[in-house]
Every structure is written in structure tokens, then in C-alpha cells.
Amino acid sequence: MICALLEGREGFDFGVPVDHPPFKFAVLSGAVIMELGEMTKLFDTQFTTPSMHMMGTLDTVIDIKGSKYLAAKFDNPVIYEFVGGHFLPNTPHARRAMRAFLKDFIPVDEEPESS
User: Fold this and answer.
1) Which residue(s) pair with 83 in the sheet?
2) 30-63, pLDDT tens digit by residue?
3) Structure pTM?
4) What are the Cα distances from residue 64, in Å, to 12, 17, 30, 77, 89?
């Protein structure tokens, strides 16, 4: 919802003034669209914020189908699926994927050889 607020959704009044630029990027983990009445309309338009969506195939808190549905609401989402539950993985593969996504937005150090 904060991405929508900062992208300045047309025709939607958040009730608060916004003096902040859009996010440069978003990383979402175990994220889903919740039924929020009028707020659900925020997801009718594609998000332009570059995004990475990390989702566990064994997540029992958030169904992966819901995470994929949310990811599809973003232009060109980067989707990282991992075998696991409702957490951020801390494996070398996951860290490399995160670095690959973030390198276009912030300086990222390379993975140390010892990891």
C-alpha cells in the first residue's frame, strides 16, 4: 500500500498529504493482497516500482498463490521461490539473488568466497 501511496494513485484519496518520492525499489517477502474494502482498488493498476518477491513454497502463513498474485500486480517483478516457510532465507543462493536485484539501485559488495 505504501508503494501505491508514493506512486500517487489517480482518483484515490489517502486522506494524508504525501511529500515523498516513490520508492526506488521494493523487496516483499511472504506478501499478499489483503481484502481491505475501498483500499483493494489500489491494486487495479499495475505498480511501476521495481520489485523483488521472495516466497517460501512451504509457507503456512501466506499461501504462495497469493504472493504470486501480488507479484503479478508489479511491472516485471523478480520472483525468488525457495523451499521453506514464512521467513527470509539466508543461503548463499538467496543472498546472490538479492544482490543481483539490488545492484541496480544501491552499491552491493560481492559475496565473500568463504560463505
Assistant:
1) none
2) 898 887 777 777 788 899 999 999 999 999 999 9
3) 0.83
4) 29, 34, 8, 15, 15
